[in-house]
Amino acid sequence: MLTKRIIACLDVKDGRVVKGVQFRNHVDMGDILELSQRYADEGVDELVFYDITASSDGRVVDKSWVNQIARRINIPFCVAGGIRTVGDAKAILNDGADKISVNSPALETPEFITELAAAFGTQCVVAGIDSRREDDGRLQVYQYTGDAAKTIKSKRQTVAWAQQVVALGAGEIVLNCMNNDGVKKGYDIEQLKAVKAAVSVPVIASGGAGDYQHFADLFQTTDIDGALAASVFHSGKIPIPDLKAFLRAQSIEVRV
Amino acid sequence: MIAIIDSGGANIASVQFALERLGAKSVLTRDAAEIAAADRVLLPGVGAAPVAMKALNDAKLIEPIRKLRQPVLGICLGMQLLFGRSFEGDTDMLGILDGECRAFTPAAGRSVPHMGWNRLHPTTTHPLLAGLDDISHVYFVHSYYVPVNKATIATCNYGQDFTAIAAKDNFLGCQFHPERSGQVGARILQNFLEMPS
């Protein structure tokens, strides 16, 4: 049986791992290579590196660390941030990344997803979606979320956009629920269910993990394929081996 | 020397790095003579069967690969290419192993691609499986699969059983990515490196 994936997200800014609350007030969390190696050793299933400044600054992620990580760790990892051309993506994949994730550039030019899928296969192409539950209850996609000053509401509704990115060729969706991000009150189960029910590809939950039970709630109440978290892992509040033992004790299949 | 056949897809670096971590030198090549002279050969593959077969055909590597006598390991799409026919783009493949490649159908609780860590179930003993624990998870990323057949030496279950590892004579294949499968994957690659050539 396919195990539920536990994914550590490393937000990267200027070559360091950082974390903010609701995308703001970034705090230094450590060295990329050291943290990556620690997670691989502890049994995390996958790593995602988001260069959170890249999309909004119009820069491509600094790639030197991609190659260093690929040489060092033996688990899959995905790189996101400012990937605007097939050439950008190719350089990162050739450096040893397993997947690339696109977010704001796909909102600007949806066909970009199709170009990436045609060039590298849908398996390599992850669509990152930053979604906010508005006061009227509607789920709205946001753009340029790496920089609070440049963040804007896109014209797209979350569920429709999720279906569109899959039709265009995305092989996976990482759904970041912005209201919950950094608040540590649990994942947005209802929103994740709505998106998961609308698409056939794997959906990864992001935003809100604060305690062991939040992961169990997610996997026991939805078909979501994996759970992504950052600060609870970086801070050591939830060690990966302890989380996996906790989930296994609740009959949730995870990698040994 | 280990030859990694350059089938045109991206993501070949991670295979090379995995071999480096095991202390093995490799060369990425499309040169038939270099491939034939290698101690062992890796056939990686990310992307689509018709694209990879066209790349092998353009490089005039189809017959040379079929004639290889040293250990050959296909990875992911590279394993699928060893079989006869793929429903992906209705493609004729290398035909070294008997069997065909079919698409997973999405269903409730079964996302496609099959992406993530799933469990290996060995169906026989084989040098490639040496030293694996009772529960060994490996990392899969694929939308097409090879049904269980006479070359299958380990299965995996994703709504149905399919071929996780295939072997016939010197030709071996892993549907998963050993280079991204932690200690289990490293052990499988080590087993491949230690197989008699």
Give me a quick take on this structure.
The complex is a heterodimer of chains A (256) and B (197). Chain A has 256 residues and is an alpha/beta fold.
Please provide a written account of the structure.
The complex is a heterodimer of chains A (256) and B (197). By secondary structure, chain A is an alpha/beta fold. Chain A has a single domain, classed as Alpha-Beta Barrel (TIM Barrel). In chain A, 36% of the residues lie in helices and 28% in strands. Chain A has an 8-stranded parallel beta barrel with strand order 1-4-5-6-7-10-11-12, surrounded by 6 helices. In chain A, 54% of the residues are buried. The model of chain A has no long low-confidence stretch (mean pLDDT 90). The radius of gyration of chain B is 15 Å and the shape is globular. Chain B starts with a strand and ends with a helix. The longest helix of chain B has 13 residues, at 182-194. Classes of the chains: A alpha/beta (256), B alpha/beta (197). Chain A binds chain B through residues 1-3, 5, 40, 43, 45-46, 67, 70-71, 74-76, 90, 93-98, 119-124, 171-172, 200-203, 223, 225-226, 255-256, and chain B through 9-14, 17-18, 20-21, 46-48, 106, 108-109, 111-119, 133, 135, 137, 139-143, 157-158, 177, 179-183, 185-186.
Biggest β-sheet: strands ordered side by side in the sheet of chain B: 2-1-3-4-14-13-12-9
CATH H-level name of chain A... which superfamily? Aldolase class I
Total domain count of chain A: 1
Helix-strand makeup class of chain B: alpha/beta
Counting structural domains of chain B, the number is 1
Stated plainly, the CATH topology of chain A is called TIM Barrel
Note the beta-strand portion of chain A: 25-35%
Largest sheet of chain B: 8 strands, mixed
Reading off the top of the CATH hierarchy, the class of chain A is best stated as Alpha Beta
**Multimeric organization:** heterodimer
